DNA sequence: GATGAATGAGGGTTCATTCAT
DNA sequence: AATGAATGAACCCTCATTCAT
């Protein structure tokens, strides 16, 4: 039923290809930034030609949009899991911080789109992006509020605390270097420690 | 004396014009991002033509570079003053946070440029930019280290604390709205409170 | 075999187009000079648009470069043939002069480019151009030296004699008119006579 | 009478300035070629500003035109002198060759305009240029014809011989290097020897 | 006479996008 | 489903030219 018809088969094939392209795009963008990543390069990475991309995506913006969606979806998935698998709110928040840092550093550019979507997207696509971005942020809100409610956290302004938290994390990608002094793990721990001092 | 003043007059005129252009550039760039801001638009904003800009700036990169310099220089000036006029390190840091927020919010456009210089500048100009950026940051480092030394602050990783601090502040411009719930003053106070919890 | 021919087909097609463009470029350039020939005009001549040229050539310099190469290659081919098919060095030199005059007059535009490569090319491409130009000239050197060795010619400075010879021939295109008093054949004969007086 | 009035005085001043500019222009052009020589550079050489040039010359073409005139006038002057001061036609021709080589090498670019005036000048100015160029060439014609008439030279086609001669000389500037193997004097002698073999 | 400043036309180049095959 | 080829709009930059002062 689910995968029976021929149509679905070819649809599956297309979806596969789309994902491949998105991954390639994400890679190139992480190297060069979105504006400088050209359709040509993205295609070349997959040994395709420029024109072929337009079979799968309406235009460049659409492609970037879907890159963003994919990455954000994944990240949200991880947040959700963390949320349901940890016990204390502190533990959850620590895990979430770790997840965010991981994405901010490793998926730098595609994650970056969260930061300044209005420079990247036209009005049409801006809305769903912002929605997803809010969904992502809301997981942080949840823990913080839960923490406040059960007395684990003492801050008053949950929204602003979340802003502070995410802001400080986003910034990491501006300076973090893979071969630098600190490992990703150290980073995750230190930031967790510091940011929990804010919350408590 | 005579020659001097005449010279200064025309030099002043050119400097004025340069500043005008820089302000225009900064405005456009913040609306559209650096890459998408065109020389034409920047000129049009001032009712000039594209070509005229090249009378004042060698090329686009040079213009962006000087935008950077101007704003950063001003901000550094304010930090310096704060540093020398306050008593406790906590007081200094609070003031510095206030200054940074003010720039990030009110001079949003200009200050923004600090964020991603490496995508904007060629290697030649990247270096002096990073230097100035470091100079700016170093004022924060100084207070933090001084605070640690005299026991006011307890954090271990001064550099990372500074990163966290500046990152969280930079992010403010992503969401802050003049007519929003919080006044600038409230913002400055809350962020100071929260970030000092990190330091102590 | 199948793959080979298909490949060759499309390769051939692209080579054809490239040649078309080169011919167009060569025509425009000889009307206006290299600097004043614009990519737009070159394209317009073929009812293409500027941008399309960049599908075939990296940039203007590359296009000019290949113009050079193509014509020079052909001419070298003819010299080589002459060299191997004639008996006396005098006969060879006469034939070579005829070839050179033919190119200078009939393929005026293309051949012209040999004249001032150093104002046209950047250092990178200058070298291979000069090399090919030298290769062309070296065929003349060979006959002259051979002629000297076997006593047919009596001049001392073979290099300078070659310069004089080629210089005088190149100049022909400055004044020669198809419908003028002298036929091409007369021209070839008279110049041969005169220049051989130099050699003997 | 000649230089009495104030008007003439200032006219003289203007003429002086014009010559200065022309010399500067000639210098820059000899370094960069005419197309690449900018009004700015020419002015800078004289510590003037671009705009001032337009007080003295209608436009760039006019300036180039007058450069050309000046140099050609000088060269013609030298030819005239040679013509009247030498005894045998051979001696005259040798001297003329020396003069031409000197200009072709030392005043490379300004002399060069003789070579391809149609690329440099619009129809308006082309005519007087060609006229002067013919005047220049006619001095060579005269000696050659005189030489034929008195039996010194044996060639039949005086025009073509002159073309051959000037062509070979013009070409020198394509390859001659100041610090090369041959001094200017050697060059003048060798070319004279070779070209007189043609005439005789 | 000279200059500073501005202009505008044009050139080279890039690149997302289209479309016939 | 993919490609090769072409397009055209947009961008940066240069430079001869102008003109008020």
Automatic annotation (TrEMBL), chains A, B, C, D:
It comes from Psychrobacillus faecigallinarum. Keywords: DNA-binding. This is TetR/AcrR family transcriptional regulator. Pfam families: TetR_C_24 (PF17932), TetR_N (PF00440). The keyword DNA-binding applies. The lineage of its organism: Bacteria, Bacillati, Bacillota, Bacilli, Bacillales. Residues 15-75 form the HTH tetR-type domain. Residues 38-57 bind DNA. InterPro entries: Homeodomain-like_sf, HTH-type_TetR-like_transc_reg, HTH_TetR, KstR2_TetR_C, Tet_transcr_reg_TetR-rel_C_sf.
């Amino acid at each position: 039923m689910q995968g029976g018809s021929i149509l679905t088969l070819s649809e599956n094939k297309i979806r596969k290809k789309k994902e491949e392209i998105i991954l390639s795009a994400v890679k190139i963008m992480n190297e060069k930034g979105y504006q400088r990543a050209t359709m040509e390069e993205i295609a070349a990475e997959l040994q395709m030609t420029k024109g072929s991309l337009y079979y799968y995506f309406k235009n460049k913006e659409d492609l970037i949009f879907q890159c963003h969606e994919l990455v954000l979806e994944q990240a949200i998935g991880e947040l959700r899991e963390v949320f349901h698998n940890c016990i204390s709110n502190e533990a959850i928040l620590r895990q979430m911080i770790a997840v965010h840092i991981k994405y901010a550093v490793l998926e730098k550019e595609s994650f970056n789109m969260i930061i300044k979507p209005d420079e990247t997207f036209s009005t049409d696509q801006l809305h769903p992006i912002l929605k997803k971005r809010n969904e992502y942020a809301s997981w942080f809100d949840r823990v913080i509020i839960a923490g406040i409610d059960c007395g684990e956290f003492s801050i008053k302004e949950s929204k602003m605390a979340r802003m502070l938290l995410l802001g400080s994390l986003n910034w990491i990608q501006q300076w973090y270097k893979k071969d630098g002094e600190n490992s990703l793990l150290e980073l995750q721990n230190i930031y967790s420690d510091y940011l929990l001092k804010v919350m408590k």
